[in-house]
Amino acid sequence: MEALEREYTTLNYGVRSTAINQSSGNHKALKERRKLVSIFQPIVDERRERRNQNEPTEEKNMTDILLEVEDENGKELNDEEIIDVLVMYLNAGHESSGHITMWDTVFLQENPEVFKRAKAEQEAIVKSRPIDQKGATLKEIMQMDYLSKVIDETLCLVTFSFVVFRQAKADVIIKSYTIPRGWKVLVWFRPVHLDPEIYNDPKEFNPSGYDDLTPKAGTFLPLGRGGRLCTGNDLAKLEMSLFLHHLFLDYE
């Protein structure tokens, strides 16, 4: 795990850098990616061997599913595609939930009234809990309305995934400027979240701003949207909610 952590840290530093020379962050990221491939390849080989020999397994993991999946023409994924998916999934969750949770705690410390209201919500949920129940349930997490707004406000202010790469499928005209078909485009999320025409006082931490606000399509993008919405969206919010739930109960 420590080796994976080191490789992913270097990969993340270089993934958005320009490929200038062999000492650039981009070059280092490509080098670390090759190391990650060398780590994952034996895992893929081992799971395929088990599958070919029909060895029973306690449960299927992500690699098993990727080895079995077929497209509409019956074509399976090759090793390069499988490893790309594994690298992507681990990278997408690398530090992101922990990073946003850290900012949650910073904003809560700086805004005691928000902390007080969020803490009261969690204590009320615990008071209504059956005596023999241990830990939070999914139903309780769905009832954490104000905490959800706290997390959304943090996601909006911090915007951990601040940019995505896209390619124009057709000529696109934006304010008389034409982006030709096939051009690569960087879509920046942060300017949307900090636009005062969309959000009142966008640089102020105010979860209550969501009380009477339903963000319009395309204006709340911390985890993407539509078919490109982060597949770990619900898991990330669940992890953050559970951490903050226990923080409110055990911290004054």
From TrEMBL:
Q: Name one GO molecular function term.
A: ent-kaurenoic acid monooxygenase activity
Pfam families associated with the record? p450
InterPro entries, alphabetized: Cyt_P450 (IPR001128), Cyt_P450_E_grp-I (IPR002401), Cyt_P450_sf (IPR036396)
Instruction: Tell me which domain of life the UniProt entry assigns to the organism this sequence originates from.
Output: Eukaryota
- Name the keywords, alphabetized: Heme, Iron, Metal-binding, Oxidoreductase
Q: Name one GO cellular component term.
A: endoplasmic reticulum
Provide a GO biological process annotation.
brassinosteroid biosynthetic process
Names of the cofactor(s): heme
Q: Which residues bind heme?
A: C230
This protein's name: Uncharacterized protein
Q: Which organism is it from?
A: Solanum verrucosum
Output the lineage of the source organism. Eukaryota, Viridiplantae, Streptophyta, Embryophyta, Tracheophyta
